[in-house]
Amino acid sequence: MEETDIAKYTIKDSVFTNLFQDKKYLIQLYRALHPEDTETTEDELKDITIKNILVDVCYNDLGFTVGDKIMILTEAQTTWTMNIIIRALMYLVQSYHEYFERRNDNLYGSKKVKLPKAELYVIFTGKRVSKPEYVSLSEELKIYGRTRVAITNTINICKDRDVLKEYLSSREKEVVDMVMTLFDEEQVMRAYVESEKEEAAMISAIEMCQEIGLPISETIKKVAGKYKLEENDAEVWVQRYWKIEGDSR
Asked: Which pTM does this prediction carry?
């Protein structure tokens, strides 16, 4: 690529990113993507663009959330490449990671975290070329299936092609773990359902112990033994759901 081409690319990239820092224009972009939504206001849009703070850090052109409902990531491209789907996935993983950190969500807890729906767009401003209207990451992974092996192979392909090579080399395990979490929503939902069932059963057990007249100390021991909890943790559960006289819960 010639120096003049690099300069043009950098200018276009900077103008695109800078333009949508102004919510007056960002809301126009959102309404172009979602003309059916006439109620969302500028105040509900939050910039979550990954910043280029260090040379080897993954960063994108534009990212924003619409309340807690939608996460939109948009890339401006002057040269078409299918590698954009790999980069978009990495941006999505990093954006989700930062989103959960901002909310202090516990991804290892039993409570299901709220996951905003992701929408990924590429705005192509280069010369007209033959390119698909939609590209699919799942098609790229079909040869391996949605497994840890598939993610690792995809990351290796990225590194071989020098796509986010430094970022992936330094954070490979973290990226694999997060992508597996995103891909395996069914497993997450199953774990969540099982956790909710266990919690409901534990509450019923506490209520039953109280109804038959067991003292709170004995109930704590029984709950700890039955559900394999430390007594301190069992005490927290029992104290939370032990009905005191006059309690309307």
From this structure: 0.49
